[in-house]
Amino acid sequence: MEKILAIEHLSKTFVIHNLNKHIEALRDVCIDLKEGEFVGITGKSGSGKSTVFKCIYRTYAPQQGCIWYHSKKFGLINLAELSERQMIYLRKYEIGYVSQFLNIMPRTTARELVKQAVLEMGYEEERAELEAVKMLEHFELDQELWDCYPGTFSGGEKLRLNIARAMVKRPRLLLLDEPTASLDPASKLKVRELIEQLKREGTTMIGIFHDIEFMENLCTREYTMRDGKLADLEL
Questions:
Q1: Strands 204-208 and 38-42
Q2: Which CATH number belongs to the domain containing residue 144 in this structure?
Q3: In terms of Cα–Cα distance, which of 132, 103, 130, 95 is closest to 117?
Q4: What are the contacts of 124-132 at 24+ separation with CB within 8 A?
Q5: Angle of helix 155-167 relative to helix 125-138, nearest 10 degrees?
Q6: Which of 154, 233, 225 is nearest to 10 (CA)?
Q7: Model-wide pTM > 0.85
Q8: What domain range is 72 assigned to?
Q9: How far apart are the C-alpha atoms of 198 and 215, rounded to whole Å?
Q10: What is the pLDDT of residues 172-210, one digit of tens each?
Q11: What share of the chain is helix, strand, coil (3-state, %, to 5)?
Q12: Domain count, the chain
């Protein structure tokens, strides 16, 4: 299997200008992922886990290091130096991100949010509708909510919708930032089932988890982060 992602000596520092203070969020982080692998990252809040994801997704620009990604369209590229236009393309077609939080689009229903994700991939209206319904049913989102605006949803319902919207695209690389936070056991099982299905289909994934039990027999490898560094690796 070829490497799909190689993070080399990644460092990120935040500057609090009014306090003239520098906070080192990441220090010399290195991670390799082969196609189809699922790597899990654990660690305390503030250890740098989400910062790694935001550098991959280019929400943050790292100070040092490279993030080599093997794109289906662009070939081998460094995400740390990619143009904004290229990054927008990758977010749309190749790299998915599941956050604990849902960025709600105004006057867009739950069904439309998932359906739009499929339409973005170039599928026709009928296929998009079928895929949206299948995904909403899988996560057992109450059918009465499908045509409602997510602003009224509970935290768990919003998270399930966020996961559905990202996973329905079957991205080449999927970043899962606490995908089971605020979910009940039945919903966690639904997430696990879909992760296992994506693994079988060859999707490469990185997941941040506090729920160690959820990770059992799911991850190819597990890392632990402490103070912005990868502290150990379990094979």
A1: parallel
A2: 3.40.50.300
A3: 132
A4: 131/168, 132/168
A5: 140
A6: 225
A7: yes
A8: 3-234
A9: 15
A10: 999 998 888 778 888 888 888 888 888 888 899 999 988
A11: 40, 30, 30
A12: 1
